[in-house]
Amino acid sequence: MRVDRPLGWDRGDSIRTGVSAAVALSLLCTAGYLGWTQGAGLGGSNAAFMLLIGAALGILFERGRYCFFCIFRDLFEKRNSRGMYAILTSIAVGMMGYAVIFSTRIPHPGSGTVPTDAHIAPVSVALVIAGLVFGLGMVISGGCIAGHLYRLPEGHLRSLPALAGVVLGFGAGFLSWDFMYSNFILGAPVPWLPAGGGYSIAVVLQLGVLVAVGLWLLKWNPPVTGRPDRRVDGEEVRRLVFFKRWPALVTGAGVGLLAVLAYYKDQPLGVTSQISSLTRTGMTELGILQGFMPGLDERLAGCVAVVIHTITTNGWLILGIVLGSFAAALPGRRIRTEAATAWNSTTALAGGILLGWGAMIGLGCTIGVLLSGTHAMAASGWVFGVAVVVASGIGFRLNLHRRANPTGFAA
Description:
The protein has 17 helices and no strands. With 411 residues, the protein is mostly helical.
């Protein structure tokens, strides 16, 4: 018997798959155009590369459910730690790739030279406060900033007021920046682990921490259950690729590898630079902010906001995440509009404000500070990450996510 299509295929699947293929083709064509128009103000080959990196991230985020909100919610509410292994794996893979790149650019890390293009930030009370505020905002709004970007195409309508809140939060962060910088950040140490004993010791130290955390989390790692004697046919392949959640280790390894490629070609991963820069530009042109901001314009590393009037490579990365997630969700029938109410939209906006303020003061989010920071073996990544975990744990234990969105959540 001839089987042209997997069992259970209907006209809707044909339409969804066709649209997904069209989106993927448009991404490739756009990347080709960006690479071809070198010097035309669109970013050139770096913009093309980051657009494709973003698309790949969007696919991994969507198919592997690489969402810090979902992963932490599963850990604290359901006592399921499986998603945490995606984060641990992405840190390990990205760190080892960064170490190779660092070794070619700064052969002697103990010389006092720190890679200024990596996200190695000062460690201060401000960073801890930023992480705590960001973690609470994530619980209340229903996602981190990257999570809202990739879940919006799935129909997660709360992401719209949440992202609007992020912009307002950035604005509040800019207005409070001078106080936070002068009182807490200025003069704070910038610990970089390789500077103390070289790359090998730093890698082994971080791997040891990751392994220890992984072993501790095994107590909440549910056993893998499978369906025995499953025949590998077209329907099964379709189920594994488009419907079943991708394994945590595969997802994490993919995210870590993409982070290395992004840093090697252009800059560390982060999803706030373009958004915060546009916010700062608008506030500056309205006369709300001064032109020069200490720290941001002279010495700090991270997802730092600058005054811009164009789309940056970070903007192309964000666009890639949104479109990549959309293309991945379509064939798996995961685009479902979540009910938006006045209450859950208001709480999403409030949570987004906390996300934006925390990301502005912390110079990034869970992608730009936690991931890119730990990849760079910077203490700032660990400090911010611990603060986010603590705050999210408290938020989930207090059921702030249920109170903020009693009608339900995107999985």
